[in-house]
Design brief:
Belongs to the AHA1 family. This protein has about 350 residues and is an alpha+beta fold. It has helices spanning about 35-45, 125-165, 230-240, 240-250, 325-345, and strands at about 15, 25-30, 50, 55-75, 75-95, 95-110, 120, 185, 220-225, 255, 260-265, 270-275, 280-290, 295-305, 310-320. The two termini are about 30 Å apart.
Length: about 350
């Protein structure tokens, strides 16, 4: 997830007074990180876990790393949060003090709170500490998950208030002007034609030409994915600069016209648009930064709208064989799964 404030200011429009984001059309994002840190501290620091005569207390939040954002797209609220938390705890059994840690490595929107991993460890091992460890494992983890669930519910409740703006003619039959919200950023629609100075690979973009003197073993990848949305919505997710920015979670270089360049994921992926058929087809030359200089693959994406979902068929040819598995995995993780998470397009049950 791109950290708050890292976005390029040339494509961010902040706090405009002229009825920005009418009908909640644009992607609106609010920084929820400071609020989240305060809320998690209030819920976890000093939290007492007691049951059946045993008691443990969270004595310190030893680590609280992460971030959170709240987003609105076309009236749909989407929350991103990712936290790595380490808690120190102590308890007493048979007049002997026991201390240890609870590690929560990945509290995020990708997992249900009941599935969040909590690891209990001890500072020292003896019969008393093993008894308290068992108590923390069986009772403490569940009560801590309840606290984490409270954080998630209050995050969504508090930040929903300022993200869904009034629609036109919604208040007394007249157009309403949304109030400014603290630290609110609106990602404007359309495509930014300004150049973003990112390092690109200076080599031929013809996928039929290999680097001179290098013989590569090449493979072709074929993928079929289903998304619970209309074809124009999926096409927008793949081509609108604001939406590409959202699912790649970082600023991008993106020129949507034939021969236009794109650079994603901090320069790790780059290429050119070769063919664009709205809502139907996208053809790109495409490469990883680590690939041999001058070598590009060819990517063809075709969209087919069905009655209740859209099918995306992707063929990527001329992938170096040594990179084939990594490329397939990264398409799924950083493109398809990220698009489903960012825009609520869902996973279709096969």
């Amino acid at each position: 997830m791109a950290k708050w404030g890292e976005g390029d200011p040339r494509w961010i429009v902040e706090e405009r007074p002229d009825a920005t984001n009418v009908n909640n059309w644009h992607w609106t994002e609010k920084n929820a990180t400071p609020w989240s840190k305060d809320k998690l501290k209030s819920l976890l620091d000093g939290f007492v876990i007691s049951e059946a005569g045993l008691e443990c207390t969270i004595t310190k939040i030893d680590k609280l790393d992460g971030e959170a954002t709240a987003n609105n797209r076309k009236g749909k609220l989407i929350f991103f949060y990712e936290w790595n938390i380490v808690l120190l705890w102590k308890g007493r059994f048979n007049d002997e003090e026991v201390t240890g840690k609870v590690t929560i490595p990945n509290l995020s929107e990708e997992n249900d709170v009941n599935e969040v991993e909590l690891t209990v460890t001890l500072d020292s091992s003896n019969p008393a500490s093993e008894k308290m460890k068992l108590f923390m494992y069986n009772v403490g983890r569940e009560k801590l998950r309840n606290q984490l669930g409270t954080y998630i519910r209050e995050l969504k409740a508090d930040f929903a208030k300022g993200l869904i703006l009034p629609k036109k003619d919604e208040v007394n039959g007249t157009e309403s002007v949304p109030q400014k919200n603290d630290k609110e950023t609106v990602f404007a629609s359309g495509f930014n034609k300004k150049k973003i100075d990112l390092e690109t690979v200076t080599s031929t973009n013809d996928p039929t030409k290999k680097a001179a003197g290098v013989k590569l073993d090449l493979k072709t990848l074929k993928m079929t994915e289903k998304f619970q949305c209309r074809s124009n919505e999926l096409f927008d997710a793949l081509t609108r600069e604001d939406m590409v920015t959202a699912f790649t979670r970082g600023h991008v270089k993106h020129e949507l016209f034939k021969g236009g360049d794109f650079v994603y994921f901090g320069g790790n992926v780059s290429g050119k648009f070769e063919e664009i058929v709205p809502n139907k087809k996208i053809v790109q030359t495409w490469r990883y930064k680590e690939w041999p200089s001058g070598h590009y693959s060819s990517v063809t994406m075709e969209l087919e709208e069905e009655e209740d979902h859209t099918i995306l068929k992707v063929i990527q040819s001329m992938i170096p064989a040594a990179e084939f598995d990594r490329t397939a995995q990264n398409w799924k993780r950083y493109y398809w799964d990220s698009i489903r998470t960012a825009f609520g397009f869902g996973s279709f049950l096969y």
